[in-house]
């Protein structure tokens, strides 16, 4: 089967037949190592080959070899095998300690600034609620003394209620963002320590990004 697939792919490439465009999350991201060692830059092309039984198989092949110039002898690589080796690379992928510390410090500083801004906004909403409570209390006192028409008092109370709802929603939103910030930092640090689980469980679109 392997020899047959090789023969079909060689025939299609040399015969000038254009393969259909197929999607793969590694497409366009890899280069042929043999060509690189010989001073050439040649992308690995994702393609499909039809076997004798009509089944299609996914492969990566060196562009230089597909062009039939005889400059590269890298065999056609089954896509599943390439995917496994790329995922396996993440097991051994380790960031230098100094780089990891620098990234951690930079992200931590950014989150600290963002958290400080959120806390300031959060405190502002709390002060606004306190002011609204004072205004409401004064209006209720005026209502008891009949110092203002009831219609005006009711209108002002409704406005206070609208402002209170907006302030409470703002407090809830900023409070949620403050708690999320710590979670983001923790996930970031875990990713730097061991990126393989994230890559292994990510969908194809995320792996490509």
UniProtKB/TrEMBL annotation:
Write down the PANTHER family for this protein, in alphabetical order: DNA-INVERTASE FROM LAMBDOID PROPHAGE, SERINE RECOMBINASE PINE-RELATED
Q: InterPro entries, from UniProt?
A: SSR_resolvase (IPR050639)
On whether DNA-binding is a keyword of this UniProt record, the answer is yes
From which organism does this entry originate? Phycicoccus elongatus Lp2
Q: Which GO terms describe its molecular function?
A: DNA binding; DNA strand exchange activity
Q: Give the highest taxon in the source lineage.
A: Bacteria
Q: Which UniProt keywords apply?
A: DNA recombination, DNA-binding
Protein name per the record: Prophage integrase
Q: Does the keyword DNA-binding apply?
A: yes
